[in-house]
Amino acid sequence: MPKHSSKPSLLLINQTLRVQDNPALTHAISGDAPLIALYVFDTNMRKMGGASKWWLHHSLVSLHKKLETLRIPLILKKGDSFSIIQKITDDYEINGVYWNREYDSHGIALGKELKQWADRKGLDCQSFNASLLHEPSLIKNKQDGTFKVFSPFWKTILKADEPLPNLPIPKPAHYYENPVESDDLNNWCLLPKKPDWAHSFFNYWQPGEDGAHLKLSKFLSNTLERYKQGRDFPDYQTTSLLSPHLRFGEISPRQIWHAVKKFSKLTGAHNADKYLSEIGWREFSHYLLFYNPNLHQENFNKKFNRLEWNDAEDSKKFIKSWQQGLTGYPLIDAGMRELWQTGYMHNRVRMVAASFLVKHLLIDWREGEKWFWDTLVDACPANNAASWQWVAGTGADAAPYFRIFNPVLQSQKFDPEGNYIRRFVPELNALPVKLIHAPWEAKQSELSHFKIELGKTYPYPIIDHKEARNKALAAFENVKNYKN
User: Fold this and answer.
1) Which sequence positions are flagged as catalytic?
2) pLDDT value at residue 5
3) What is the predicted pLDDT for the residue at 408?
4) Which stretches within 134-252 are classed as H helix?
């Protein structure tokens, strides 16, 4: 292949780790110049959690192979994004810089700084929307203000123009004739070693763009029709499992939107709208983050700043028991162990486990948000924070303060045969259905028969549901009528 001698353009990867439907890539590669791609592991951003770093490592390996087929070298650098971009631009005599926008405070600030700098240098500089159906700044309510409730927000989205069509994989770029200097990905030490707590993740996940499209294909052909009825049952795999792929930009919401619409039209599938509304919740979470950059640290509803969380010495023991899946409530323990083993937790169980931490134990929701941030492969800055605030009752369109999930009733309703519990809490495997949801209610003779000794082979509940519920209601009642 002939090499090209003109000055190259620079593609900033950010969190769009794909080549299909990548508007910044499509635009950058359409010019006559060769193209260099840059991914910066930015040390000024919120420190990425362990599970996310595992995913990032393997996703970057996958992306590197994809870019190679397009004749695009990938440079990896660690440090301050703006300083690194400036240096790369000078070192390689870059003639244009292109990226896909991010909607957290760091991404927004970096985008503004880059555009001002590029203008001063006379560089071509453009950014694009690659991660949302619509730009948050363009979605307004009838009073030209911002939405705080999901339903009217989603109705507005549905009335807006159809999301832009997907972009295909672009044609290969011109070769860049000079060598590039990049960090060695292995030197970033993103993968756990001693212990390798992620060793089983590959049993569940294939990070990268190909893995994302495989998940989408399986969901459409095997699961979408059962989604509405089955999505709340953790023992039946009826969710799409696309959230980590979305979080790292290995697939776009537009691609999912158009694929679901097309499949529904061809097959007459009835659950498309219900599933797409979940994509809408993701959209709403990013919308909230765009207008509330400290969403993971500050109560959206400021009146809850007066709420007195449990910060007594026993709260540390409670947090540890919750993290380890040793609360004595089987459904919650199953979810927390699923999280540790797979980097993921079923959404219904997430709600119950999060509610238990916040409402039963009166632990500040920020403690839970931090744990999920570290252990979830789909730990998204928008979704994680917005979802925790929703459960805690402190967020936008939040669950009312008096909604306190009963972990036993939730277990009986959504894991009726106890199979999800048996999978992740094997010490209860022998228990029959009538006992598995609340083993402390069983007779001692029954537990002995199944070789279960509460307090040794499985813990007693760390807190009584009724007592905890009443205490939480009293605490939240104190702030109910407080005005911002």
Assistant:
1) 278, 281, 309, 347, 365, 388
2) 45
3) 98
4) 150-159, 209-218, 227-230, 243-247
The span from the CA of 88 to the CA of 75, in Å, is 9
Which of 291, 353, 280, 3 is closest to 132 using CA atoms? 280
With respect to residue 178, please indicate whether it lies within any of the assigned structural domains. no
Q: Are residues 327 and 475 in the same domain?
A: yes
**98 with 27: CB under 8 angstroms?**
yes
- Looking at 264, 291, 318, the residue that finishes a domain is 291
Asked, for residue 179, whether it belongs to a domain, the answer is no
Per-residue tokens: 449: 């028969």
Residue 38's DSSP bridge partners are 12, 75
Give residue for tokens 């990032």: 56
- pLDDT on residue 482: 58
pTM tops 0.85? yes
Model confidence at 291, in pLDDT bands (50, 70, 90)? very high
Task: Write down the pLDDT at residue 202.
Answer: 95
Distance (Å, rounded) from C-alpha 281 to C-alpha 154? 8
Same domain as 135, residue 123: no
Total domains in the fold of the chain: 3
| Phi/psi of residue 196, nearest 5 degrees | -85, 80
Question: How far from 428 is each of 58, 94, 195, 344, 345, CA to CA, in Å?
Answer: 35, 61, 26, 21, 19
CA distances from 120 to 11, 124, 125, 426 (A): 19, 11, 11, 63
pLDDT at 478 over 90: no
Does the structure show a pLDDT above 50 at 121?
Answer: yes
How confident is the model over 272-298, as a mean pLDDT?
A: 96
* Longest Cα separation, the chain: 82
